[in-house]
Amino acid sequence: MRLRIILLLSLLTSFVRLSAENVVSIATKDISLVYRVGTDGRFYQAYLGKRLTNEADFFCLPQGAECYLTHGMEDYYEPALHVLHNDGNPSTLLKYVSHEVNPLEEGVTETVISLKDEQYPIEVKIHFVAYFENDIIKEFTEILHHEEHPIVLEKYASSMLHFSKEKYYLTEFTGDWAHEANMSETLLTFGKKEVDSKLGARANMFASPFFQLSFDFPSTENTGEVLVGTLGWTGNFRFTFEVDHLNRLRVISGINPYASQYLLPSGEVFRTPDFYFTYSTEGKGEASRRFHDWARLHQIKDGLDSRMTLLNNWEATYFDFDENKLLSLIKDAKSLGVDMFLLDDGWFGNKYPRQSDTQGLGDWQENAKKLPNGLERLVEEAKRQGVKFGVWIEPEMVSPKSELYEKHKDWVIHLPNRDEYYFRNQLVLDLSNPEVQDYVFGVVDGLMARYPNIAYFKWDCNSPITNIYSMYLGDRQTHLYIDYVRGYYNVLDRIRVKYPDLSMMLCAGGGGRTDYEALRYYTEFWPSDNTDPIERLFIQWGYSQIFPSKVLCAHVTSWNKKASIKFRTDVAMMGKLGFDINLHELSEEEREYCVQAVRQYNEMKSVILDGDLYRLVSPYTGPHTSSMYVSKSKKEAVVFSFDIHPRYGERLLPVRLDGLDPNGLYEVEEICLMKGASSSLSENGKVFSGNYLMTVGLHLFSSQELFSRIVKVTAL
Ligand code: DGJ
């Protein structure tokens, strides 16, 4: 009998006619996210998916799952929020209070939903910022209370999203140093899958803070429903995917609460990092292009500006250089035709000269032996040659063999009563301490004061946080992972304000830091120390799912000399092109190829960096791969193709292009050929309709191992 009454009641509530006040709709061009207030006053996610065009239909949606589930009430699975109140009560029950909609800028609208607990003076505000044209939604949460003493935040997600589908396929991006962003797809079944980081500083060494989640079927480049999400937080993150007994899925994204209980004082707001997502019904390619457009327009530092090509000395010299060698490299940069020379690790330290990675970090004065005339001489020479000058720093770190360590052991994260553990022979400075923040800011500020012509910093971060303990935080040790990242952002904010034109590369021993919050301060990032072109095809494929080529630094190096210089350069031209190689180890013909490639790259740069990316053939599915970039006007396109290890007797099918105007006519021309070589592309020099190129395609692939092509497709 009781059961029947409950059933009847729930049937009635699901048909309750909702009014406009208790439905909250967040919309972009193609996505609808609809919430509604239940008759119990709680707030529910009724819908997330393809845009619902008839608003009247919102009122017919089923109630769905509670938007921001809390610990301690009736829910049996992972909560978004877990709070310990002053009286020891660990539960929170949130009810809808109000919401407001604020236009932020043209096409960008923020919806703020306010939820409160009737028993405890705690308020949770959930913010959704909808980028209408780009189909991206940003979500974050603010937590505020007025209890007498601090409340303890045990869990504090940025976002909780609910799905009820047949099947869930999760693609994660994981790996290690020199092996970043490997894509793997898993079918989610009952229970919990977490993708997270506990590394503190070099936070993404093993896992990147983004995912793709396909519904019902694994999505492809052009088909399928897929949610793509990423957290803007340069520290420990956690994505939780939990399938319940009814095959419903919740996705919880935010800071990893691991060892990070946060004591929130009365009246202070705890703001979570931003979670960004899109929901595409046209596969992963469309989702990537949405992220690329949005990021260039709204997120990345100088997102709409072009990028500098460069010559970096790291792999050409490692620590073994002096002034003369560098002066000659600056001349090489000039003759190569790149925009900048970038001086890497090894230029500093006197008491503990940085001639290897065992010492010197923290002592940011030029090594007098290697650079008797300081950076001054190099900056001047670069100016004389008409190239910009950039320099490597790693200001958050300290070597135990350094003057900084001798002077300020209290600034170092380490456990007072344990042996120190060194990752790459170094330790992490305690950025939760404002004095340390001043020092780190001072590294950049000091160099800029002395050498205002420095145009670029490569900011490295090679160690995770180990032996975690802060002399500064006292009894708030569980704040360290969070306050470290906040301290890091404080420093970056100061740099951005004082040096708004400075470009910076985000680097963390390769791709150990790759998130969209850091990219508000950095113009680009270093995806991996692995520059073997074959590996790079995979790594770049992985990162391109989320990031535009504009931020993916791709350098030509000596890794994998089995691959020709053309192959190596062609791979690097798919991103932000640079060289990290001793040009004198190349033959004249090879050097000429590089010079020609830089020239060609400059001509096509706007298409590669600002155009639409279409991934045509995945390196994960066979021995060949191909991608193309199409200008927004659809008048120009550049197609890259690579034969990695073709099979004997393999049938080579044409590759269908994408993104062109089907009614347009296009000329096809293979470019970037080695001197004296002629194109073997059967369609070279001919004219085709966009329709033909996208339906029949081009015979891009060959049966030659490590063969590459770049093909220009130009509208007539
Ligand atoms: C790690 C970076 O990823 C490399 O590119 C290089 O800058 C080294 N650090 C220098 O120590």
Name some characteristics of this structure.
binds (2R,3S,4R,5S)-2-(hydroxymethyl)piperidine-3,4,5-triol; eight-stranded parallel sheet; Immunoglobulin-like; globular; 3 domains; alpha+beta; disordered N terminus; 716 residues; Beta-galactosidase, Chain A, domain 5; 31% strand
CATH class of the largest domain: Alpha Beta
Number of domain units: 3
CATH fold-level assignment of the largest domain: TIM Barrel
Q: Please estimate the helix content.
A: 10-25%
CATH architecture annotation of the largest domain? Alpha-Beta Barrel
Name of the CATH superfamily of the largest domain: Aldolase class I
Structural class, by secondary structure, is alpha+beta
What is the distance, rounded to the nearest whole angstrom, between the alpha carbons of the first and last residues?
76 Å
Number of strands: 37
Main sheet makeup: 10 strands, antiparallel
| Mean pLDDT across residues | 96
The rough form would be described as globular
**Portion in strands:** 25-35%
The value of Rg in angstroms is: 27 Å
Low-confidence stretches: 1-18
Oligomeric state of the chains present here: single chain
Secondary structure tally, helices: 12
Bound molecules: (2R,3S,4R,5S)-2-(hydroxymethyl)piperidine-3,4,5-triol
Briefly characterize the structure.
With 716 residues, this protein is α+β, with helices and mostly antiparallel strands. Helices cover 21% and strands 31% of the residues. The structure holds (2R,3S,4R,5S)-2-(hydroxymethyl)piperidine-3,4,5-triol.
